[in-house]
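Milestone 3.1: sequence recovery, worked example.
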């Protein structure tokens, strides 16, 4: 199980299809496979694999899969081939912080630091920050401080 760096793209196809470049197929040991299970966080979605002829390592997610998995953005990501034809997108990182907050400083005195983490971390991962909610089980998420 090693990490493979690739470029993630989105297509407007409504199907549960992933388009995979030949180089990426080889890296993930998917050559000859017809289906794969994609993981993003706790979401797991079966998808049909369609190889494409494109130089480099590229993965195209159809809209049907992107919406089911809530993948927030395209760009450079890592993939990890797990057991049983399962490929994980990521890494997915959550930062939990508590403290006095305002609308301009949701993490109190740590807001600047957390903004920096989100900016730097978003280059090669999916990262978000959140605070505990007022009632149990609810949180406020801050996915982008651009």
């Amino acid at each position: 199980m090693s990490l493979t760096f690739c470029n993630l793209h989105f297509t407007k196809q409504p199907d549960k299809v992933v388009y995979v470049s030949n180089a990426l197929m080889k890296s993930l040991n998917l050559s000859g496979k017809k289906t794969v299970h994609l993981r993003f966080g706790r979401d797991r979605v079966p998808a049909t694999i369609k190889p494409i002829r494109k130089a480099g390592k590229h993965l195209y997610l159809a809209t049907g899969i992107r919406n089911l998995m809530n993948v927030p953005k395209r760009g450079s990501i890592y993939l990890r081939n797990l057991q049983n034809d399962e490929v994980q997108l990521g890494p997915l990182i959550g930062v939990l912080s508590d403290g006095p907050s305002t609308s301009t400083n949701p993490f109190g005195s740590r807001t600047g630091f957390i903004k920096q983490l989100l900016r730097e971390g978003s280059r090669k991962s999916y990262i978000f920050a959140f605070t505990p909610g007022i009632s149990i089980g609810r949180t406020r998420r801050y996915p982008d401080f651009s």
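Confidence is low (pLDDT under 50) at residues 134-140. Strands lie at 3-10, 17-21, 35-40, 43-52, 58-61, 75-81, 86-90, 92-96, 126-132, 139-142.
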